[in-house]
Design goal:
Structural class: alpha+beta
Number of strands: 14
Radius of gyration: 31 Å
Largest sheet: 6 strands, mixed
Strand content: 5-15%
Number of helices: 23
Helix content: 40-55%
Number of domains: 3
C-alpha cells in the first residue's frame, strides 16, 4: 500500500465530478449533518489536518466486476438521501474510495451542491419542510474563536440570503471555484461598500478560502492496488469497525452489496425498510432488522451480525430468496399493525422475527393477515407476541442471537400446521426467558402507568373484541385527566390529603381503556357516566360496554373515583392473571 502526499480540494472534486473517484458498493450512505460539514470547512481554513484518505485502484480488467456509486451532490433528507449509482465506462481503471467518503461528500456538497434538511416542527410531507440551502461563509464574522475553537462562520443558508445581511456578508462557498484571486476578488468586495476594516477582513477570509480550496496541497491518501476483493473487504472492515459511528450492520450490508449478482442489496434493503415503515402507523424498523431477518429466514447457521455469516454462498442464498423474504416481512408488519402496534408500543422489533420465520415457512401468503383460514394462527401469534412484550425483565435483550436461533429451530422442527406458541414458550423458559408471570409481575401489570410503553399491548390483550385493523383506537382516560387538577378536585369535594393519590391513580391502568378515535374525540373531558348515557342509546348496550371494559358501577361524581378505581383494578388484575398465564 503506497502513500501519496499532496493534491488540492479542487482537483479532487474534478475527479469526483468526472467519476474518476467513485464509491464501491461496500460503502455505506452519507450520514453527516450540516454542522459536521461546517466544522470540516473551518478545519480546512484553519490549516488543521482532516485525515488522509484510502483509495482502491481497480485495474481495467476487473473494474466491471463490481458495482459503484457516485457522491451525493444535492442532498435532500426525504427525496434524495442516497448515493446515486455511478455510470462507469467499461474497460477503464477505477479509483474507489474505501475511507473518506463522508469528508469528500462534505466537500462535494459544500463546493458544488446543496443540502435540504427538514425544518423543526414541520410535517415530513409538507412542501416547505425541506428548503434547499447552500453553504456560505460570513466574511465579516468576529475573529475570536467560539467555544468549540471555530474561527470561521460557515452556515447552510437559503440562496436569497447570499450577500449583505445586517452585520453579515454571506459568500456562496461554491463561487470560490470560479472567482479569480487578486484584483478581481478585491473589486468584487469593493462593490459591497464596506469600510476599510471590513474590506481588509473580508478580503483576508476570501483569499484564505481560495487558497485552501484551489492551491493548498491538503489531500493525502493511501492507495491499495491488490485486486482480491476478500483482501480489500478485510482492509475496509479493519479500517472502519474501530469507531462507533459506523454500525456493524453498515459494514455487513456493504459486503452483501458487493456480493449480490443480479440485485442491488443496498437499494433493495433501503427500499424494503421504507416500504415496511409505510404500513399502518409505522413500526420504526431499520436495516438492522431487515438484515437479521434475512439471516434468520434463510436458515443461515447463526443470525448474528458476524462477517463469517456474510460469505458469498450465504449472500447468494439471500439474493435468491429476497422476494419471498420481502413478502414475509410485509405480511408480518401488516399483521403487527393489524394488532394495533406502532413504533412506540412494539418495543423490540426482534420480537417480530420468529413470526416472520413462521410466515416464511408457510410460503409468505399475501393474505395471512386477513384470511379466515389463518385465524387461529393469528390469535396464537397475537397472544405470544403480547406476552413477550409485557415481560418487564426483557425477553428481547441480552442473548438475543442465541434465543432467535433456538426459536428458529423450534419453528423449523414443529410441523403440526399451526403456530407453535406452546413450544416456543418452553424453549424460551429453558433459556431463562419464560413467559409465565409471577403474582408480583401480575400486580405490576395491574398498576401499569400511562407512560409505560407496554400499556397499549396490555390494553389490547384485555380487549380482544375490538377490531384494531379497521378502526383506530386511542388510550383514553376513563375519568378525564383534566379533572385531576387541585382546583377541580377541591371543587369536587376531594380533601387535599387525597389529591396526590387521585392524580397517581388517574394515570394507571385502572383508569385507562382503548377507545375508538371518533368517540374519544367526542368524549373529550366529559365524565364517564354522563358520556355513556349520551353515547349509548339503551341500557343493554351501555351494560355490554361496561362489562366489556370491566367498568362495574361508574360513579357520577369525582369524589367516588377511588372506589371505582380500586374495584376496576381488582377486576383487571384477575383478568390479567388469567390471560398471561394461560397456555
Amino acid at each position: 500500500m503506497m502513500y501519496h502526499p499532496g493534491g488540492t480540494i479542487r482537483e479532487t472534486l474534478r475527479r469526483i465530478e468526472t467519476n474518476e473517484y467513485v464509491l464501491p458498493a461496500i460503502q455505506r450512505e452519507f450520514v453527516w449533518n450540516p454542522n459536521q460539514i461546517c466544522a470540516l470547512f473551518d478545519s480546512l481554513l484553519q490549516g488543521y489536518p482532516f485525515g488522509e484518505f484510502l483509495y482502491w485502484q481497480i485495474d481495467a480488467e476487473h473494474s466491471a466486476e463490481y458495482r459503484y456509486y457516485g457522491f451525493v451532490l444535492d442532498y435532500h433528507q426525504r427525496d434524495n438521501p442516497h448515493c446515486p449509482e455511478a455510470r462507469i465506462t467499461p474497460g477503464r481503471p477505477i479509483t474507489a474510495v474505501l475511507d473518506g467518503q463522508q469528508r469528500l461528500t462534505a466537500f462535494n456538497i459544500g463546493l458544488r451542491g446543496s443540502m435540504a434538511v427538514k425544518r423543526p416542527y414541520k410535517w415530513w410531507r409538507s412542501p416547505d419542510a425541506f428548503p434547499r440551502r447552500i453553504l456560505a461563509l460570513d466574511l465579516l464574522a468576529p475573529t475570536e474563536p467560539d467555544e468549540r475553537g471555530s474561527r470561521y462562520t460557515f452556515e447552510f443558508i437559503e440562496e436569497s440570503r447570499v450577500g449583505p445581511e445586517g452585520e453579515r456578508l454571506w459568500f456562496r462557498v461554491s463561487d470560490i471555484l470560479d472567482i479569480r484571486p487578486g484584483p478581481p476578488m478585491l473589486r468584487w468586495l469593493t462593490e459591497k461598500r464596506l469600510s476599510d476594516d471590513e474590506l481588509n477582513l473580508a478580503f483576508e477570509r476570501l483569499d484564505r478560502l481560495y487558497q485552501a480550496v484551489n492551491n493548498d496541497q491538503t489531500v493525502c491518501y493511501y492507495e491499495e492496488s491488490n485486486q482480491d476483493i476478500e483482501h480489500v473487504l478485510n482492509i475496509f472492515i479493519r479500517r472502519n469497525s474501530g469507531g462507533t459511528v459506523l454500525s456493524y450492520s453498515d459494514l455487513l450490508l456493504s459486503i452483501a452489496t458487493s456480493q449480490w449478482e443480479e440485485l442491488d442489496a443496498r437499494k433493495e434493503v433501503h427500499q424494503l425498510v421504507d416500504d415496511l415503515n409505510r404500513i399502518g402507523p409505522g413500526l420504526g424498523l431499520t436495516k438492522d432488522f431487515v438484515l437479521k431477518a434475512g439471516l434468520m429466514l434463510t436458515d443461515i447457521s447463526s443470525v448474528g451480525f458476524q462477517v463469517r455469516n456474510f460469505t458469498r454462498a450465504n449472500m447468494a442464498v439471500l439474493e435468491r430468496n429476497w422476494s419471498k423474504i420481502s413478502s414475509a416481512l410485509v405480511e408480518t408488519v401488516q399483521l403487527a399493525a393489524g394488532f394495533g402496534f406502532d413504533s412506540n408500543s412494539i418495543r423490540a422489533s426482534s420480537s417480530l422475527l420468529p413470526i416472520a420465520y413462521y410466515i416464511y415457512q408457510q410460503g409468505a401468503p399475501e393474505d395471512f393477515d386477513v384470511h379466515s383460514r389463518y385465524h387461529e394462527d393469528r390469535q396464537a401469534i397475537r397472544g405470544w407476541l403480547i406476552r413477550s412484550i409485557l415481560k418487564a425483565s426483557g425477553i428481547w435483550g441480552s442473548g438475543l442471537d442465541t434465543l432467535l436461533t433456538a426459536l428458529r429451530d423450534v419453528l423449523r422442527n414443529t410441523n403440526n400446521g399451526r403456530f407453535p406458541a406452546t413450544e416456543l414458550r418452553h424453549a424460551m423458559a429453558q433459556r431463562g426467558k419464560g413467559l409465565d408471570f409471577t403474582q408480583e409481575e401480575v400486580e405490576d401489570l395491574a398498576d401499569m402507568s400511562f407512560s409505560d410503553r407496554r400499556v397499549f399491548a396490555l390494553l389490547t390483550l384485555l380487549s380482544p373484541a375490538i377490531n384494531l385493523r379497521t378502526h383506530h383506537f386511542h388510550i383514553d382516560h376513563i375519568f378525564p385527566k383534566s379533572r385531576f387538577t387541585k382546583a377541580r378536585l377541591r371543587q369536587a369535594g376531594v380533601i387535599d390529603e387525597e389529591h396526590e393519590v387521585f392524580v397517581d391513580c388517574a394515570n394507571r391502568i385502572g383508569n385507562l381503556q382503548l377507545l375508538e378515535g371518533i368517540p374519544n374525540v367526542e368524549k373529550r373531558a366529559k365524565m364517564p357516566a354522563k358520556w355513556m348515557n349520551e353515547f349509548f342509546s339503551d341500557n343493554e348496550t351501555r351494560e355490554h360496554y361496561q362489562k366489556l371494559y370491566f367498568m362495574g358501577e361508574v360513579p357520577r361524581d369525582m369524589i367516588d373515583f377511588l372506589v371505582f378505581y380500586e374495584a376496576r383494578r381488582a377486576r383487571l388484575q384477575r383478568r390479567i392473571e388469567q390471560i398471561v398465564n394461560s397456555v
